[in-house]
Design brief:
Structural class of chain A: mainly beta
Largest sheet of chain A: 7 strands, mixed
Largest sheet of chain B: 6 strands, mixed
Helix content of chain A: under 10%
Shape of chain B: globular
Oligomer: heterodimer
Radius of gyration of chain A: 14 Å
Helix content of chain B: under 10%
Structural class of chain B: mainly beta
Order of helices and strands of chain A: EEEEEEEEEEE
Number of strands of chain A: 11
Shape of chain A: globular
């Protein structure tokens, strides 16, 4: 059974950084991409970027370019999302999501078939 | 990349059918058959309901169906049930990335 388990809630000061982890189990970590999606309070879903763990290659939504870094550790089947220069508007629940491994992970087409439980990041002075 | 456009809310009585639209452009919805739909209950992670425009994952009720015409995709829920009350988001592939819709709150009257 596939599971994505994320790290716990964080409270950060404006201008600081946050790093959220997503540990995968029950599947082959090298056979799919992991995306990060965030949801501000009362708002919709927003795709931030993804990583192909087996290659260590990431691509990011234009909005977050230069401020987000997504990495993966194949040895522990864990993906990470680090967001820097935090501001109040970054207060949100951050989700990791698996791209269905039935697709070519290069393509980016894969729907998100499993999701983490979400990590609330609160940015407040 | 702008969010795909969905109606803010849709409602229906139990047993009725409702349809949620998702409008994009030829660069996303209209350009690829890679539209997905997600259901999200309050405080929960999204759940995949439809992928590749009209395919249902194993375990998803056949009351959920998807379609697409031009730059607009649609999700239809037939035989509406109380448990269908949730937020629904469409998503499309676009230029090596993904874009989500603005979200639709479905209310069962």
């Amino acid at each position: 059974q596939v599971q994505l388990v994320q790290s716990g809630a964080e409270v950060k000061k404006p201008g600081s950084s946050v790093k959220v982890s997503c540990k995968a189990s029950g599947g082959t970590f090298s056979s799919y991409a992991i995306s990060w999606v965030r949801q501000a309070p009362g708002q919709g879903l927003e795709w931030m970027g993804r990583i192909i763990p087996i290659l260590g290659i990431a691509n990011y939504a234009q909005k977050f370019q230069g401020r987000v870094t997504i990495t993966a550790d194949k040895s522990t089947s864990t993906a990470y999302m680090e967001l820097s220069s935090l501001r109040s508007e970054d207060t949100a629940v951050y989700y990791c999501a698996r791209g269905d491994p039935g697709y070519d992970f290069w393509s980016g087409y894969a729907p998100f078939d499993y999701w983490g439980q979400g990590t609330l990041v609160t940015v407040s002075s | 990349q702008s969010a795909l456009t969905q109606p803010a809310s849709v409602s229906g009585s139990p047993g009725q059918s409702i349809t949620i639209s998702c409008t994009g452009t030829s660069s996303d919805v209209g350009g690829y058959n890679y539209v997905s739909w997600y259901q999200q209950h309050p405080g929960k992670a999204p759940k995949l309901m439809i992928y590749d425009v009209s395919n249902r994952p194993s375990g998803v009720s056949n009351r959920f169906s998807g379609s697409k015409s031009g730059n607009t995709a649609s999700l239809t829920i037939s035989g509406l049930q109380a448990e269908d009350e949730a937020d629904y988001y469409c998503s499309s592939y676009t230029s090596s990335s993904k874009v989500f819709g603005t979200g639709t709150k479905v209310t069962v009257l």
